[in-house]
Specification:
Strand 1, helix 1 and strand 2 form a beta-alpha-beta unit. It contains 11 helices and 6 strands. The chain is α/β, with parallel strands linked by helices. It folds into 2 domains: about 130 residues, Rossmann fold, CATH 3.40.50.2300; about 80 residues, Winged helix-like DNA-binding domain superfamily/Winged helix DNA-binding domain (Arc Repressor Mutant, subunit A). The longest helix is centred in the last third of the chain and has 15 residues.
Length: about 220
């Protein structure tokens, strides 16, 4: 099996070495190159054409979110995993909107980097578990703000489906939702399938992006 080639863009040499050490533990990936800043990162990405790029948001010459957008614009097939010290909602939301398909907080990279790379390499979205509940909580803190939602697809949901949508976004399991609403887990699963079909979604992270796009996230409120 061919290994997926990775480019690391981060301005901290010691952190890059740490990432390389983690990546070398896997038989699925190899480090194809490194870059110290955004300009070098884009240049090497174009030259090396890696399968994945690990990008830090705080770079000396440009914002890593901007770099993510440039990489995806030039190489749509290349996946980007953001590995950043920032866990604020606006950084996460803007990273995904720029084209990233994964987000890992640096402090949990040791435990979650390889899982994130594997998920992203498969074409799926990955959001660090250490922040996912916080993010979803922030999005849904205003469960009473449903009036802000003007998306036509959302309007096709029944009141019960809208209720379950909020509970799913809050991170509740099918059993927890079933217990809360006094229905069976199978009924919850059926509602979930209908919700995702109506909204054209395939994962929780897509639900998060959907909520962000509709303005459910107030960046100013959650920015630290």
């Amino acid at each position: 099996m061919d290994k997926k080639r990775i480019l690391i863009v981060d301005d901290h040499p010691l952190f890059r070495e740490g990432l390389k050490s983690l990546i070398e533990r896997s038989q699925k990936f190899e480090v194809a190159g490194e870059a110290n800043d955004g300009r070098e990162g884009l240049k090497k990405a174009k030259k090396l054409k890696p399968d994945l790029v690990i990008v830090d948001i705080s770079l000396p010459d440009k914002n890593g979110i901007q770099l993510t957008n440039e990489i995806r614009s030039n190489m749509p097939e290349t996946r980007v995993l953001v590995v950043s010290m920032h866990s604020e909602i606006n950084y996460i939301s803007e990273s995904f909107q720029a084209g990233a398909t994964g987000y890992v907080v640096k402090e949990s990279a040791t435990e979650r980097l390889l899982q994130g790379l594997e998920t992203v390499a498969q074409g799926e979205y990955y959001l660090d578990n250490s922040i996912s509940h916080q993010v979803v909580e922030n999005i849904m803190k205003s469960s009473g703000k449903t009036a802000r939602i003007s998306d036509a697809d959302y309007g096709t949901l029944t009141p019960r489906e809208q209720e379950i949508t909020r509970l799913l976004a809050e991170g509740l399991s099918a059993k927890e939702i079933a217990d809360k609403l006094y229905i069976s887990p199978k009924t919850v699963a059926n509602h979930r399938a209908n919700i995702f079909q109506k909204l054209g979604l395939h994962s929780t992270i897509e639900l998060i992006k959907y909520a962000a796009r509709l303005g459910l996230i107030d960046v100013g409120v959650w920015k630290k």
